Automatic annotation (TrEMBL):
This is VWA domain-containing protein. One of its GO terms (cellular component) is ribonucleoprotein complex. PANTHER family: 60 KDA RIBONUCLEOPROTEIN SSA/RO, RNA-BINDING PROTEIN RO60. GO terms for molecular function: RNA binding. Gene3D superfamilies: von Willebrand factor, type A domain (3.40.50.410).
Length: 408
C-alpha cells in the first residue's frame, strides 16, 4: 500500500523515478516502495495515512520528516526532479547506514535502547544530508550565480547545494563563490559591456585628471568592443587610464590560477575569490568567453555553474603553479577550435613568474593580445602586458590600477 496517500505506487512514472533513485543511491536494503517515498516526500508535500511494509522505514521516514533537516532540504526540492532525486538517493543511503549501525546497538525499539537508536538515525541523516543551514545558504549562492550567468549556465542550484553540503571541506571552499559574488559587481567596472565583446588596443592617456576623465568619456562615446578598463586607484576605480585606439576582438580566453597560494587571504579576502569574481564578471558581460582554471594541471573549460563549483571545490588546493603549461594548453586549444581574434588574459597572484618565452611567442601568434592580470604586488613574468587588481583599503572590494605594459 505505502505510506503516502498522494502517491500512486502503480503509476509507471512513479516506479521509473523510484528505480532511478535506487540506482543513484546504490543501496540494496530497500525496495521500490521505499524509494518512491524517499523521492516524493521531497518532490511534493507528503500526505501520510497509509501503511508501510517496513516498520523500521516508516519510523525512520516520519522521524526525518519531523526534523529541521527535512524542512531545509524539502524547501529547495519542491517540484524539482533533479534535486528530489539527489535528496532521495542521500536519504536512502542514510537509511542503509542506519540499518548497519543497528547491529552495534541491537534492535531495541522500546525501552532503554530506543533513544540511542533514533539518535543514531539523526546522525546518519546529518552525515548524508549535510547541515540544514549550509543547504539553504549554498542554494542561495548557486541560484544567484546562475541568475548572473544567465540561462543555459545555471545548472540546478538545489541539487548542487545538496551535493556540496555533505562535505565540510567543499562547503568552506564553496563559500569562496559567495565572496566572489560580492566582488563581481565591482569587477564589472573593468569591462564595458555596451559594445561587442572583446578587448581594445590601448594608448596611454597622459596628463591631468581632467584629461583622464575626457578619455573615459571618449571611450564610452566610441562604444566599440567591451574593453578591459584599467582604472585609476585615486579615481575610485571608475576612470580609465588608457584610451581606445582600435577595434575590438571576437572573444576572451581567461586562464584563472587556483593553486594553493591563491587560497590565501589578503585583508580578509581570498585571492581565489577575486579571481573567481573576475571570471564571473567576464562570463556575465561577454558572449564569447572561455574560462579555464589551472594550478599544476590545466582543467577543462568552464561552461556553467556546476563545472565552476566542481573545479573550485572538488580539487584540493595544493601548491604548484605551471603558467607555461597553462598558456601552452590555451594556445593549443585556441588553434584546434579556431578561436580567431581572442585575447588571452592570465589571472594569477604571480607566485610563479617563470614563463617560457617560446610558449609566449606562440601564444602571441595565436591570440590578438596576451595580458597578465595580477592579484597583489608580486613580480610578473618578463615581457608581458600587465594589469594589477588590488584589494580596496577603505572597504572590501576590488580596485584596479594600471600596470606598465611590458610587451616585447
Amino acid at each position: 500500500m505505502g505510506l503516502l496517500l498522494n502517491v500512486d505506487y502503480s503509476d509507471p512514472l512513479v516506479r521509473a523515478r523510484a528505480l532511478r533513485a535506487l540506482r543513484a543511491s546504490g543501496v540494496k536494503s530497500v525496495g521500490i516502495e521505499e524509494a518512491a517515498e524517499a523521492y516524493y516526500v521531497h518532490y511534493r508535500s507528503p500526505i501520510f495515512g497509509g501503511r508501510s511494509s517496513s516498520p523500521v522505514w516508516e519510523r525512520f521516514l516520519t522521524t526525518y520528516v519531523k526534523s529541521h533537516y527535512y524542512r531545509a532540504v524539502a524547501g529547495v526540492c519542491r517540484l524539482n526532479h533533479k534535486a528530489s532525486l539527489e535528496a532521495a538517493a542521500r536519504l536512502l543511503r542514510a537509511f542503509e547506514s542506519y540499518l548497519k549501525s543497528l547491529e552495534n546497538y541491537g534492535r531495541a525499539w522500546f525501552g532503554r535502547g530506543a533513544r540511542e537508536a533514533w539518535a543514531e538515525a539523526m546522525r546518519q541523516i546529518r552525515r548524508h544530508m549535510g547541515d540544514p543551514a549550509d543547504v539553504a545558504e549554498l542554494h542561495r549562492v548557486f541560484k544567484k550565480l546562475g541568475e548572473i550567468l544567465g540561462r543555459g549556465r545555471s545548472g540546478d542550484p538545489a541539487a548542487l547545494a545538496l551535493s556540496v553540503a555533505t562535505d565540510p571541506r567543499r562547503v568552506r571552499l564553496a563559500r569562496v563563490l559567495a565572496r566572489a559574488l560580492e566582488l563581481a559587481p565591482r569587477m564589472g567596472l573593468l569591462f564595458d559591456g555596451r559594445g561587442r565583446p572583446g578587448f581594445i588596443e590601448w594608448e596611454r592617456a597622459y596628463g591631468s585628471l581632467s584629461r583622464i576623465g575626457r578619455a573615459a568619456l571618449y571611450a564610452k562615446a566610441l562604444s566599440v568592443g567591451a574593453p578591459l578598463l584599467f582604472l585609476h586607484k585615486a579615481a575610485w576605480a571608475e576612470i580609465p587610464v588608457y584610451r581606445a585606439r582600435g577595434g575590438g576582438d571576437k572573444g576572451v580566453y581567461l586562464l584563472i590560477d587556483k593553486s594553493g597560494s591563491m587560497y590565501g587571504a589578503v585583508k580578509g579576502v581570498e585571492k581565489i575569490a577575486v579571481a573567481a569574481a573576475y571570471a564571473i564578471a567576464a562570463l556575465r558581460r561577454f558572449k564569447n568567453v572561455v574560462v579555464r582554471f589551472f594550478d599544476a594541471e590545466v582543467y577543462e573549460p568552464i561552461s556553467d555553474v556546476e563545472k565552476l563549483v566542481d573545479v573550485l571545490t572538488r580539487v584540493v588546493a595544493s601548491g604548484g603553479t605551471d603558467i607555461t603549461k597553462a598558456v601552452e594548453a590555451a594556445t593549443e586549444d585556441a588553434k584546434s577550435r579556431r578561436l580567431e581574434g581572442y585575447t588571452l588574459a592570465v589571472v594569477t597572484d604571480g607566485e610563479d613568474d617563470k614563463l617560457n618565452p617560446v610558449v609566449l611567442k606562440e601564444a602571441r601568434a595565436v591570440f590578438k593580445e596576451v595580458w597578465f592580470v595580477l592579484i597583489g604586488d608580486s613580480k610578473p613574468p618578463p615581457y608581458v602586458r600587465v594589469a594589477r587588481l588590488f584589494l580596496g583599503e577603505d572597504r572590501p572590494g576590488v580596485n584596479a590600477v594600471e600596470g606598465p605594459p611590458r610587451a616585447v
